[in-house]
Amino acid sequence: MRTREKLNPSLLKQHRKAAGLSQEDLAKKALTKSEGYSENSQLRTYQKIEEDGITSPKGARLIANALGVSVSDLQQPDFEVGQKRLIELIKRAVENMKMDNDMSRLARIAKELGFNQDDSTCEWDTVQDDEYASLAHKIEWLHLSGEPGELESYAELFGVTTQELRPAPLASFWLFSSSNRFFPSLGTVVSGHAGVLAEIEKNWEKLPDMLRDGYRSGTITTTVLKEESRYRLRFEFSNVSSLSFSCLFYACNTKENVGLPSRNATEWEQERLMKSLKYYLFDHADTVIIEGEQFPPEHSSAVFHVRSFNVVDGDEQHEIGTRIIDANYLFRGSLQKLLKTHDAGKWRFTNPDMLSPSSIFPGVQLSLVENEFVIKVYQITTGWRDFDGDFHESHWPLISRKKFIESFLGARDSLIIADENGEIPPFEPEPEIEPFPPKNTSDTFQVRFFDECNNEGIPSRKVIFENRFLLHFALQTFLEKYGNANWRFDPPKSHVFRGIRMQLTENMYCRINLGWLDTQGEFHEGTWSEASREEFIKRAQDLQNKFMYVPHENEVIPSFEPEPQAISNKGGAA
User: Fold this and answer.
1) SS3 of 380, please?
2) Which of 161, 192, 184 minimizes the C-alpha distance to 254?
């Protein structure tokens, strides 16, 4: 009988992506000709392994070597997967008890879930997975605590063996301890690095506000050190140094019969832990030191980095430039001047909680809104300059970002901009990247015609007008041809679409967009202010205000009309 090896497809995929390899790359690297794999079978064989995890011991070894890990690193199941399976097992047992009308066993499960004894007759379909998870977690703990009698009791209750109740190899568990006087913890067993982060968050939430808001009268410093197989995290508060505390955590080798000795975390576990921990601390501390490396560096002064985006069709962002402002008072002054350029109600700060985790965007976002549509976005981050003057992005704690936003809301007139001689730099970005729209382009208009009958949103025809005069002339000719008909414009503020919508017939409408043509003649949509759109509509509706345009010799005026077969037969275009 051939021996087979079982790998975890999820972990295998994660390790492959972490190594920056495609399926084909890894197949060629691991399943070589010298190992008996043909070029035609390499990719197909690997794809099958990543799909179901089944391979030979030799194949498992070759793949692990190519990824720089051990075979066991590719076999450790995800904890969540194991817990989900345990929850499903409990739910199936409940269904069987309901079918057998076994009220006594249902009553016991109801008690385990924290319900009243009478709840054995309740609607079990309404019980949520997170309620079953509490019982699943208790069973998982029994595997660690070495209470075989109680575990056997649960196995009998659910009609399974004790082995079937095992959710996952116990090597995925970590031991966590804390010296936090407000939330002390000794020997708490958690699941994986995610459980470690959850315990750190609990410690943080139990701190008094005066410590969590420590930047008001001091700073918060966190230090992460790795001591052999163990990790130590220390929180220090410069305003109340006596309340500093440490956390200690390590991966457990739970295969031993006595105690929970530490083990070396796998490379995958270490990478995920340190990455998650780094971004978590960036959101909560002013200074972060990880294994000797300090963020931001010592003696560096904060500078501000502003990225500016134009927004098209309500969501598509086009970056138009960046700017770096070197001092806090200059930055606040330039931002205050920007906020005064429009009505206060048109500026919106995004809640920093919506921008976490910091790995996505560790800063403050400011939006300019017209009629509920975002038309411009500024993303603000902090950092420092090195000796060469190059900018490096740093972290900006969540609470500091929130206080920064609060200092501007409702207080724009009371903020001090600068000294009388202070030169306030503009907030708008420097032309460091291709502007939007690009330079040396002129306004171009695209008209797309749609048939409402097909309900597919696919235009039946597109027409390009290379300047506003050509569009005005073609539109005037069209409207005069059909006289006092049913055509109408929709108000610009009635839709997300950032153009002009015009109903032509009962079943046909068109959309007019403003943009530009690139060097290949391709149209790109740009921004079109609401005031400009309303003026365009006003002139189009007033036929007495002629859009007079005299074509040049041999100049061809594009027709505004859609193709004949697309016109309604109910009296032409209306």
Assistant:
1) strand
2) 192
526: tokens are 């740009």
CA dihedral defined by 371, 377, 382, 388, rounded to 10 degrees?
A: -150
Checking if the pLDDT of 192 tops 50, the result is: yes
What residues does 448 pair with on adjacent strands?
Answer: 462, 511
Torsion angle (degrees, nearest 10) of CA 22, 24, 30, 32: -160
Q: Residue 194: helix, strand or coil by DSSP? A: helix
Q: How far is CA 145 from CA 85, 136, 153, in A?
A: 21, 15, 15
Helices marked H in 113-258 — which ranges? 129-145, 148-158, 192-205, 209-212
CA 316 to centroid of chain Cα atoms: 16
Beta strands in 344-390 (DSSP E): 347-349, 364-370, 373-385
Residue 221: pLDDT band (50, 70, 90) is: confident
**What token pair was written down for 345?**
């109600």
Per-residue pLDDT of 84-106, as tens digits, reads: 778 888 888 888 888 888 888 88
Which two tokens mark 2? 């051939």
**Residue 155 confidence (pLDDT) above 50:** yes
Measured distance CA(3)–CA(262) in Å, rounded = 32
At 549, list the tokens.
């345009």
Query: Encoding tokens for residue 355?
Result: 């921008």
Q: To the nearest 10°, the Cα dihedral for 258, 264, 270, 274?
A: 80
Pick the closest to residue 72 from 2, 22, 144, 8 (CA basis). Answer: 8
- Helix axis angle for 103-112 and 148-158, nearest 10°, is 130
For 516-561, write each residue's pLDDT tens digit. 888 888 888 877 777 788 888 887 777 545 555 566 667 677 788 7
Average pLDDT, the chain: 76
pLDDT value for 77:
52
The residue whose two tokens read 């032409």 is 572
H or E stretch covering 479:
helix 468-482
Termini Cα distance of the chain: 79
